[in-house]
Amino acid sequence: MSNNVIERIDFIRDLLVDAGDMLIVTGIGTPSSNTRAVADRGLNFYTSGAMGAATGIGLGMALSRPDRCVTVITGDAELMMNVGTLASVAVAKPRNLSVIVIDNERFGATGSQISHTAHGVDIAGIAKACGFADAITVRAQGNVVGVRKRIHEKNGPYLCVAKVGPNKRMGAGPARIRDGVMTKVDFMRALEASDA
Amino acid sequence: MAEAPVFYADLYAHLRKANMEMLAYVPDEALGPVLDAAEADNSVTTVVMTTEEEGVAVCCGAALTNKRAVMMMQSSGVGNCVNAFTLIQNCRIPFLALIAMRGEFGETNAWQVPAGKTTAQTLELAGFHVLWARRPEEVAQIVDAAADMVWKANQAVAILLSQQLVGAKQL
Fold this sequence. Notes:
The complex is a heterodimer. Chain A is of the alpha/beta class. Chain A is built from nine helices and eight strands. Chain A has helices at 8-15, 30-39, 54-64, 76-81, 84-92, 123-130, 144-151, 175-178, 180-195, and strands at residues 23-26, 44-46, 70-75, 97-103, 106-107, 113-114, 134-138, 158-163. In chain A, the strands form two sheets. In chain A, strands 2-1-3-4-8-7 form a six-stranded parallel β-sheet, sandwiched between helices. A two-stranded antiparallel ribbon of chain A has the order 5-6. In chain A, a hairpin with a 5-residue loop joins strand 5 and strand 6 (113-114). The longest helix of chain A has 16 residues, at 180-195. The N and C termini of chain A lie far apart (49 Å). The mean pLDDT of chain A is 93. Chain B is α/β, with parallel strands linked by helices. Chain B has one domain: Thiamin diphosphate (ThDP)-binding fold, Pyr/PP domains (Rossmann fold, 3-Layer(aba) Sandwich), CATH 3.40.50. Chain B is built from seven helices and six strands, in the order αβαβαβαβαβαβα. Chain B has a six-stranded parallel β-sheet, sandwiched between helices. In chain B, helix 1 runs parallel beside helix 6 (139-151). The longest helix of chain B is centred in the middle third of the chain and has 13 residues, at 52-64. The mean pLDDT of chain B is 96. The chains are: A alpha/beta, B alpha/beta.
């Protein structure tokens, strides 16, 4: 087993304590359910499918709304499924985009099979090689303070891999929140309200 | 390089008339004039993708923040997008794809044919309305119709530029 000690839900909670009008996209599986559990808000766009799309959605939002900070919170396997998106982000250079990878080194939703990062694949290293402004890996809960500061700076694109311990099972949340059209409508209404 | 056929100017002008402000793409020779026009246009953001499915996500992110984006690609990329297309259907996101065909009218490369044969059906199975453009004089009307369906009726629409229109690559 991995020796990672960060408790994922604590990391996400502390990361988002002053999210303000930030736009947040979450990746399929536990990143979506964790974020919903500890920091539910209209400006969160939760995905529960289309694995690999979270960072691309964040890129589209970041380019379309350069005035807002955009943060993607996703899992290591979700990101690896479309790892080329890191190259596209680096080319587009949205300063307002941050990608937070909740890395448990497992395919968590399918039975915690060992994933690529458990074998040493270094997502922060990939992001750096692509040309991200900054990319780091953190292994202690105390690092969240610096990461939180960084995602508000608009000096990206920025990526942080948080090495976390094993998943704790959490419910998928109410069906209303899992529905894609409702998720879209909630997000777009919240965006409109925050622009008013 | 030869001057681009006139219909490309119609195509681009009508996308802009519909307020397209972002163009995500994996390039294709037959789409070169559209990309050139977008890159010369300060009102349009172009975003190059490593694979077409990324572009689906990018255009959806733009739509969620009220920006009109178009995904431009070659037909062989459609198969790469099938899982990403579920995002469009689940969330009912307005989506416009501009696709240059390979593997149909006059194709000379057998390797292009299997993907070309399945392009329209794949899109239809994924929930798209498919509009074929085969003649230069119909391009403007097709773009207008597609833009209305996408941005007024919240539909997913793919415009397929046939090789009858853009020409088949001679190998």
